[in-house]
Structure formats: structure tokens, C-alpha cells
Design goal:
This protein is an alpha+beta fold and 375 residues long. The chain is built from five helices and 13 strands. A hairpin with a 3-residue loop joins strand 4 and strand 5. The chain starts with 5 loop residues before the first helix and ends in a 25-residue tail after the last strand.
Length: 375
């Protein structure tokens, strides 16, 4: 029998770790009821990192789902108020704002040590029929032609200065970047960053809202750093501190979390120490078969991020203010199939260094003919 190579053994361990983290995520989404409209939840193992915003989004949505029947979440709008402590459980308090015939509204507050760290409004809707339309799938390589991000980081050896601290760490989702991490194309200035993702565990068929909660979790993965992409060539990642300010997510159809989903992340502007980022999540491989925008399956999300130059070393949250406009709106009576968009605001601060010439960077084009830059 052929023995496994060192690389094969590493891959096997990483896949097992990913499955374990996926199982852990499912476990912490099984909230403990404390009192009427009050729930308690555990956290992921984060080491020295603070609480992940995507986890709080998913658990808050899960808490809201515990108070409704016969409806599905179609949009949420959230604010990250304080940094969460991953070593302490989180309480989620649900306020039943309105129970209508077609739409249901809930407000959720996440609490640690008696203080709110997060607040969210979420709207649910009964299933309704309407006209449908969606943009076609961007022209990017399929996930089968791309390498897993964890394997790419392992092959790079010494950590690349532009990599995120989370790069190469096992997560509940497999991730395959269209721009391979550490590659020449990945290091160029650009405004978009498409990534394929897939959840690493099977989901119970009877749990209808679970997939949308996982979508909320995934919609925050890697979204903050998108705001720095147009400055890749001039600002090292190690000189940035980032934090999410607010987050919005629209979900327009069912969410097949067990399939490969294209997370098409992009940034459109940065000003006043904040950047606006968005993500469109799509399901399916063919043009016109669109699954999501801005979250995962059939969802849309975006985020605004603060990009600041602060020589005093202040907490980046001090300078975050205001709500960044989201990139997608949904009006009642117009149903968009397969498109969801997440939007969020994030803080990005330069730790003191001079601004190179004060010039604005421009996006470079994707040079692989198989992947043209979308308009």
C-alpha cells in the first residue's frame, strides 16, 4: 500500500479541521433558550482573535428565526457596536416588532457583560410569486480549475506580507480564489475579488432557516479587506487595521450551501476613513443561473469600511460614524430571483506611514482571457 506523502497528510488534516469547524458552527447555531425572546450561544474557537462578525450575524438571525413560523428572512440590516469577546457567551434578545400577513419584522440585540455589542433588524416574508430577472454569471474559472486557498498558503511557505491573518486557517467553508493568493494578479490594484465557497458539512433537510443563517455567516468572510484592494501596490496589509461598522444582506431565493457558490466581492469607493464594499453571491455555473448577491446563495450584501490615516494609534472605532449607503434595494412587489447582495461598513486604518504621493490608485484588469473584468 502506498504511504501518504507529507502534502497529502497535511491536506487530509486540513480537511478534517474544516469539517470539525463546520460541525462546531452548526453546534453554536443551536441556541439555548433562557427566557421568552432571550437566547444564549457559544462561540467559535478564535485564539487571539476577537469574535467574528459573521458568527454574530448568523446567531442573531437564528434567534430571530426562533420567533417566527411560515416565513423566511429576505433582508437584514446590522450594526457592529463593540468588539465581541470570543471567550464569553453571547445573549441574543429578540424584539417582536410586527407580525403581518406577508411580512414579519424582528429586532435583535447581542449582549455581552450587560452591554450591547451588536444590533440588527430583520424582515421575513411569506413565499410569493412575481416576475424574475438577474444578471448573468461573471466569466470566471469554475472551482474545479482552482486550488484551495489553504493549500496555496501552505505552498507559499513564509507568510506573504499581503495575506490576511486568517489566510491559511481552517474555516467552516472551503474557499478557492479566482486570483490565487500571493500571485502577481492578486497583488495588483483592483476593485473586485471573486471567490468560490462551499460549506464543509451536510445540513439537515428539516431545518429550513439554517442555510440562510450560514449565508449570513459567510457574507462577512473577507468582506472588510475588499476595501483595501485598490491600494494593494502602495499600502502593505500589515499597515492596516480593519473593523466592520455595519452590514446589510438581501436574500432572493433558496440557499444551496452544500454547492459551490461564487462570492463576487467588490469595492466602489473609499473616503473619510471608510470604504464601501459589496458582495454578490451566485449559485449555478451557467449564465443567467444566478444564486445570490452579497451573501451566499441568492443573497446580496455589502459593507462600508473606514479607511483612515491615524498617526495617534487611536482605536479605529473612534472615527467610525454614519451609515454607508448600501448597494442594493428591494421594493415590495418586485421579486428578484437568485440575486442577493450584502453591504457593510468597515473601518480600515493606516498605522502611521506616509501616503505614497497622495495619489489615487486605479484598478488593473484581469489579464487571463478566461476571466474578463465585469462592468
Amino acid at each position: 500500500m502506498r504511504s501518504m506523502s507529507t502534502a497529502d497528510q497535511s491536506t487530509s488534516r486540513e480537511q478534517a479541521d474544516q469539517r470539525e469547524r463546520a460541525a462546531r458552527l452548526l453546534k453554536i447555531l443551536d441556541l439555548e433558550p433562557i427566557e421568552h425572546n432571550l437566547y444564549r450561544a457559544g462561540n467559535e474557537v478564535r485564539g487571539q482573535f476577537r469574535l467574528f462578525g459573521g458568527q454574530v450575524l448568523a446567531q442573531a438571525l437564528r434567534a430571530a428565526y426562533r420567533t417566527v413560523e411560515g416565513v423566511d428572512a429576505h433582508s437584514l440590516h446590522a450594526y457592529f457596536i463593540r468588539a465581541g469577546d470570543a471567550s464569553r457567551p453571547v445573549l441574543y434578545e429578540v424584539d417582536r416588532i410586527r407580525d403581518g400577513r406577508s411580512f414579519v419584522t424582528r429586532r435583535v440585540v447581542a449582549i455581552q457583560q450587560g452591554e450591547a455589542i451588536f444590533s440588527m433588524s430583520v424582515s421575513f416574508q411569506v413565499q410569493e410569486q412575481g416576475f424574475e430577472h438577474a444578471h448573468s454569471m461573471p466569466n470566471v474559472p469554475p472551482p474545479e480549475e482552482l486550488e484551495d486557498d489553504i493549500e496555496v498558503v501552505r505552498r507559499l511557505g513564509d507568510r506573504h506580507p499581503g495575506l490576511s491573518p486568517m489566510a491559511g486557517r481552517a474555516r467552516p467553508f472551503e474557499m478557492r480564489s479566482v486570483f490565487p493568493l500571493g500571485s502577481e494578479a492578486w497583488q495588483r490594484n483592483r476593485f473586485w475579488n471573486p471567490v468560490w465557497i462551499r460549506f464543509c458539512a451536510d445540513l439537515p433537510q428539516s431545518d429550513h432557516g439554517l442555510a440562510r443563517c450560514l449565508l449570513a455567516y459567510a457574507s462577512d468572510m473577507g468582506l472588510v479587506s475588499t476595501g483595501a484592494l485598490p491600494h494593494n501596490e502602495t499600502v502593505p496589509r500589515s499597515d492596516l487595521q480593519m473593523a466592520s461598522l455595519d452590514h446589510a444582506l438581501w436574500i432572493h431565493r433558496e440557499v444551496p450551501m452544500g454547492d459551490w457558490l461564487l462570492f463576487h466581492k467588490r469595492t466602489s469607493l473609499a473616503e473619510g476613513a471608510r470604504a464601501l464594499c459589496a458582495r454578490v453571491l451566485r449559485a449555478g455555473r451557467k449564465a443567467g443561473c444566478v444564486g445570490f448577491a452579497g451573501g451566499a446563495a441568492a443573497a446580496a450584501s455589502g459593507s462600508g469600511h473606514r479607511i483612515g490615516i491615524d498617526g495617534q494609534g487611536r482605536d479605529c472605532r473612534e472615527a467610525t460614524a454614519g451609515c454607508v449607503p448600501v448597494v442594493s434595494r428591494e421594493s415590495r412587489g418586485v421579486r428578484r430571483r437568485g440575486v442577493s447582495e450584502p453591504a457593510a461598513a468597515t473601518a480600515i486604518r493606516w498605522i502611521p506611514r506616509s501616503i505614497p504621493g497622495g495619489s489615487r490608485s486605479t484598478s488593473s484588469t484581469w489579464r487571463d482571457r478566461s476571466c474578463s473584468r465585469p462592468t
